[in-house]
């Protein structure tokens, strides 16, 4: 979705690959919510969720998930992140 949006948040039809790498500090154009699972430490997907919710918030969520024995990775528990 971010690849298909212009700087004003308007989505245009397109196809192909993207060159976007989303990490903390990325300025989202249209996305402000995400449903995702708990990702591997030091993964690019962890960087994505940290870009949306903030690294400190995500680290606290992961600490709680470990404490409460949530399941991680593809078949694990999920979380809803909203900005």
Task: Please outline what is shown here.
With 83 residues, this protein is an alpha+beta fold.
Q: Would you mind describing this structure in some detail?
A:
Helix content is 28%, strand content 12%. By secondary structure, the chain is of the alpha+beta class. It has a single domain, classed as QueA-like, CATH 3.40.1780. Strands 1-2 form a two-stranded antiparallel ribbon. Helix 1 crosses helix 2. The radius of gyration is 14 Å and the shape is elongated.
Order of helices and strands: EHHE
- Give the name of the CATH superfamily: QueA-like
Helix content class: 25-40%
Residue ranges: pLDDT <50 for 5 or more in a row?
none
CATH class: Alpha Beta
Sheet of most strands: 2 strands, antiparallel
Number of domains: 1
Helix- and strand-based class?
alpha+beta
Distance between the termini: 16 Å
- pLDDT averaged residue by residue: 91
The number of strands is 2
> Order of strands across the biggest sheet?
1-2
Q: Any guess at the CATH architecture?
A: 3-Layer(aba) Sandwich
Principal-axes shape call: elongated
The CATH topology comes to: QueA-like
Total helices: the number is 2
Tell me the strand percentage band: 5-15%
- Rounded to an integer in angstroms, the radius of gyration calculated over CA atoms is 14 Å
